[in-house]
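Full entry
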Amino acid sequence: MAKILAIETATRACSVALIDGEEILGELSLYVPRVHVERLVIMINNLLDNLHLKHSDLDAIAVSNGPGSFTGLRIGLSVAKGIAFALNKKIIAVPTLDAIAFRLREFDDGKVVAPLLHARAEEFYYASFKFVNSKLEPLGDYLIAEAGKIADDFDQDTIFVGDGAETFFKNEIVRRKFVSGYRKGLAASAREVALLAAEKFERGEFADLRSLVPLYIKDFVAVKGNPLNKLLEKI
């Protein structure tokens, strides 16, 4: 049994969870934009305190590594790396779209699941999956495209999920084609990051601490005064 701390900051969710084997011991989530830099470390410490655990009790750190918010990804990965490096722990990278799709793990009828995250303007990050014996199976690459192009890639029975689904369905072409709509209330969560990380832990699929970088999909654009600088001072 492995105790894994999971971090999700790639979306508007600032979420942390702790798993022991397949058992979720605890989870804290805030679905409020732009709180990641202020709350993430506090939430991790609070979660561990509430469970009467120390950082040294952890076996690995898991992080949602994109695609998603550039700033959010850098914050989450920096904290995850900081903890893993300081304690000499393994680090596990879980793609954000995988974690979102995994929220439908009990919906196992062979339909295609397409998680969506709004990138900017008319663009969305997306991927496609199926569940085989409740295991998440990817059907292609992680991509970015406009709503009309994405609609062409899927048939009418596709199940859309994720933070970007509501905006995606504001497109008239999308609404006409996909009459079944999308699953509401299934945003990214550290719980799913933890569960997928547990599978990777058992397979020995660890990331290289020094070379691990966010999965951006498109080129990163640096922003002046990035709040990450304040966060790093606290670690």
User: Anything to note?
Assistant: DSSP finds eight helices and twelve strands in the chain. Residues 220-235 have pLDDT under 50 and may be disordered. The CA atoms of residues 123 and 146 lie 4 Å apart. The domain at 97-183 is CATH 3.30.420.200 (Nucleotidyltransferase; domain 5).
